[in-house]
Design goal:
- The complex is a heterodimer of chains A (about 575) and B (about 250).
- Chain A contains 14 helices and 19 strands.
- Chain A is an alpha/beta fold.
- Chain A starts with a helix and ends in a 27-residue tail after the last helix.
- Chain B has helices at about 55-65, 75-90, 100-110, 125-140, 155-165, 180-195, 195-205, 235-240, and one strand spanning about 120.
- In chain B, about 45% of the residues are buried.
- Classes of the chains: A alpha/beta (about 575), B mainly alpha (about 250).
- At the A-B interface, helix 4, strand 3, helix 7, helix 11 and helix 12 of A face helix 1, strand 1, helix 5, helix 6 and helix 7 of B.
- Strand 3 (about 105) of chain A pairs parallel with strand 1 (about 120) of chain B.
Chain lengths: ~575, ~250
């Protein structure tokens, strides 16, 4: 019986349609842009049920979930509503516009480069240019204080997010081999083929007793609705022109629009307005077409990610919150985190051409958990990275080569393969986002400053990760090895907690002291594990939507009844 | 011309005494298309032969780099000369054809494009370039030269190595952290150089791949149109195969 059940499950793999998200089927067959002809338009003066600031992993997911449940939703997004056909290119330097490149200041002893590295712009957010890795957090990530005596325990557990992970893995969809680490689980789509370099790395790791598996990546394997199969062109970080890679732009925004959400692009939120008498927020001030406007709303959710969310709160001052909204306990912006992400490249006799196949291919979470013998707590994961020429040049430069030596390494590009680590760096209170009052953006809004410094545990973790990857590449037969130190991802800055004095939001992601203000992005995270944060950000937004709808949270006095919306046809040909 | 075995890694700087590569003049001259200084490992590969297979938007962006030489608008003439000499030396572009690195950087900075972050102890990127221009002259003077421009290659190399090591000091460098300035300047230099199709020819990069994609992903595999490395063919029979016998 077991075998038969397993056989049926395997047969059904990739054929299961997510039960409550039709995004992939609402896209057009003949063009990549999200159809917007039927999108609702709300008047600024109409108090919608919720205004969501930011259309990335958190905001996109929250909008879809709430719109499905009949909420009237307006999403304000600073950047454009991308059309992958006309806006994106198959080119590194030409993809500059995908990144948030307005001024921000970085400081601390280990400053973190922003922009291309971790900051999104436009509908879809930074998932538009993330590599595509979608690993779940481990159960241990939610209780690091109890287990390891560092950081903070989350006020929720892995079990609270697990059903949302499972739902999202169907929606993105996630492809990969059976996952033995953390809470073991399988993925709805089978693993993608891997390129030659990854085969060599898997074998090198095996010789050292290290297991690497294919996936998990948010890239459809086979066509999925009207999203075509991946063509393995290697430009995941430049925006997927194919629509094969998951981002909210293709996974949640189409369904949100179909259910009455308005995505208002090119609109920069400048402040959230508080009604001093009731202590509730009543809308968001924003700049669209160069004009200041104000959208009335019954509730507000901020989804601007770890830098823009604190910035918006700190720039929203009032009599009740003179130091910035939600900041009376001086917690906004604190404990912002990044992952250590060194990359180590090995040189091999054969041509490997690492620009082919998606950068996310294989990974290992064997070193994810604390091992006392290593001399530091928490751990790291190992993943493929496939640098294109400009990134490869920065890698070579970082190893100390310029001039003729740099040109020589660059000419050798096709013989190299690169692995990267994600090292869990610990939350530190002095790592913080603030606003700089005397530096303003083009709209006159004070810009953000991010200070970041590592602690000893962080340095030991990164050093251990680099050694491990070095060993894998050597075991695989590398003839030369080059290393670059860098960071990846942003989380924290408005963390959730059970103590109002040490957190910004409660376990329902509701801002302490403001009953109808929520935060639904990576900034609420207390720790980050060594997993890429995208799917966890989505899962948190998905959970928040569920709790809002179950009336566990009374964001609104009264809510309209959910509308019945007919299912769209399976295939919609353009113009037909 | 000595035959180099690229299955081995003896040509790589880390595997050579002194840490410097052999002369690129040991490599074949480019026979198809252009590479910077016309040497490379894929003499018959020209990524621009594939332009018709690229989507229109990508084609426009990439071809603009080849077809239009942006004028210098941001930097003054003396700044442009000093920075141009620096770009040539740091990218080992000793002779034509050269990728116009400084023109591409000037165009980007002039248009107001930035990278989305500024170190708290650094000025705006454009101002960083200006101060680096002054700082290169200051450092060259410390070596007894009149300026960076026109200094001997030994002096220029010593200045650049100190810049890379973060050990420049005095005058401009007392206010401008050299390591961060190196990061900012080289980020732009490398982005400009390796965004250019001539550099892709030199390194055998497949280039834009939409909507065609890649199908041959395995060890040692390549698409029918991808670069064939030099020395992989027998040079005697090769002249038959390529119909260039007797030339």
């Amino acid at each position: 019986v077991r075998t038969r059940f397993h056989g049926l499950r395997t047969l059904a793999r990739g054929a299961v349609r997510p039960p409550d998200n039709d995004s992939a089927f609402l896209l057009d067959v003949h063009r990549r842009a999200v159809p917007q002809e039927r999108m609702a338009r709300y008047d600024d003066t109409y108090p919608v049920d919720i205004v969501i600031v930011g259309a990335g992993a958190g905001g996109g997911t929250l909008a879809q979930r709430l719109a499905r449940r009949g909420w009237k939703v307006v999403v304000l997004e600073k950047g454009p509503f991308w059309d992958p056909d006309s806006d994106w290119v198959s080119d590194e330097a030409g993809s500059h516009k995908l990144y948030r490149t307005e001024e921000r200041i970085i400081g601390g002893t280990d400053p973190v480069e922003l922009g291309k590295n971790n900051s999104g712009h436009g509908v879809g957010g930074s998932m538009v240019h993330y590599a595509g890795y979608c690993p779940r957090f481990h159960p241990s990530d939610f209780e690091v204080r109890t287990r390891d005596g560092v950081g903070e325990d989350w006020p929720i557990s892995y079990e609270d997010l697990k059903p949302h992970y499972e739902r999202l893995e169907l929606e993105l969809p996630v492809a990969g081999e059976y996952w033995p680490w953390g809470d073991p689980h399988r993925y709805p789509h089978t693993a993608h083929p891997i390129a030659g370099g990854a085969e060599i790395a898997v074998e090198g790791a095996r010789r050292l007793g290290i297991e690497m598996r294919v996936g998990p990546v948010g890239i459809t394997n086979g066509s999925f609705g009207n999203r075509p199969h991946c063509i393995y062109r290697g430009y995941c970080l430049q925006g997927c022109k194919v629509n094969a890679k998951a981002s909210p732009l293709v996974t949640h925004i189409p369904d949100a629009i179909e259910h009455g959400a308005e995505i208002r692009a090119d609109c920069m939120a400048s402040s959230i307005e508080l009604d001093e008498s009731s202590g509730r927020v009543n809308g968001v001030r924003y700049i669209g077409d160069g004009v200041e406007r104000f959208q009335h709303a019954e509730a507000v959710a901020v989804c601007g990610y770890s830098i823009e969310t604190p910035r918006l709160l700190l720039n929203s001052t009032s009599r009740r919150f003179p130091q910035g909204l939600a900041n009376n306990d001086d917690q906004v912006g604190r404990c912002v985190m990044v992952q250590g992400a060194p990359q180590i490249a090995g040189r091999f006799a054969e041509e490997l051409r690492m620009y082919k196949a998606p950068p996310p291919e294989i990974s290992s979470e064997q070193f994810y958990e604390t091992e006392q013998t290593r001399g530091f707590v928490r751990g790291f994961s190992i993943q493929t990275v496939g640098p294109l020429p400009i990134d490869w040049a920065r890698h070579v430069l970082a190893d100390g080569h310029w001039g003729p030596a740099l040109r020589e390494y660059m000419r050798d590009y096709n013989h190299w393969y690169t692995l990267g680590a994600l090292s869990e760096l610990l939350p530190l209170s002095e790592n913080r986002v603030t606003v700089v009052s005397d530096v303003t953006d083009s709209n006159g809004i004070p810009v953000a400053r991010m200070d970041y410094s590592q602690c000893d545990n962080d340095r030991r973790n990164i050093a251990s990760a680099k050694r491990t990857i070095h060993d894998i590449l050597e075991a695989a037969g590398a003839q030369d090895i080059l290393t670059i130190d860098r960071y990846a991802h942003l989380v924290g800055g408005c963390r959730m907690g059970s103590d109002p004095q040490r957190s910004v939001v409660d376990s329902d992601q509701r801002v302490w002291e403001v009953p109808n203000l929520f935060i639904a992005d990576g900034s609420v995270m207390l720790t980050q594990g060594s997993a890429n944060p995208a799917i966890t950000i989505m899962a948190l937004a998905s959970r928040l939507a569920e709790r809002l709808d179950l009336k566990r949270l009374d964001a609104q006095a009264s809510r309209p009844r959910p509308r019945r919306v007919p299912l769209p046809p399976l295939i919609r040909a353009g113009g037909a | 011309m000595a035959r180099i075995d690229f299955r081995q890694a003896g040509h790589l700087p880390n595997n050579r005494s002194g840490g410097q590569p052999g002369s690129p003049d040991e490599l074949p001259r480019q026979r198809n298309g252009v590479t910077p200084q016309m040497h490379g490992r894929y003499p018959d590969y020209n990524v621009l032969d594939e332009v018709e297979h690229w989507d229109r938007e990508t084609r426009q962006v990439v071809m603009a780099r080849v077809e239009h030489l942006p004028p210098i608008r941001l930097f003054t003439t003396p700044e442009a000369q000093t920075l141009g000499a620096f770009c040539d030396r740091v990218m080992a572009q000793g002779r034509e054809p050269k990728i116009p690195v400084l023109n591409l950087i000037d165009a980007k900075l002039f248009s107001g494009k930035r990278e989305g972050y500024r170190y708290d102890d650094m000025p705006d990127d454009a101002e960083t370039f200006r101060r680096v221009s002054q700082g290169l002259d200051a450092a060259a003077r410390q070596h007894g030269a009149r300026a960076f421009l026109g200094a001997s290659h030994d002096v220029q190399d010593a200045v650049i190595q100190a810049f890379a090591d973060g050990t420049l000091h005095g005058e401009v460098w007392d206010d401008l952290p050299p390591s961060k300035a190196w990061q900012v300047v080289m980020r732009e230099v490398l982005s400009a150089f390796y965004s250019h199709p001539w550099a892709w020819n030199e390194i055998g990069f497949g280039g834009p791949a939409y909507p065609r994609g890649f199908a041959r992903l395995g060890v040692g595999q390549r698409e029918s149109w991808e670069a064939v490395p030099a020395f992989e063919r027998d040079p005697v029979n090769d002249t038959h195969a390529r119909h260039v016998e007797g030339t």
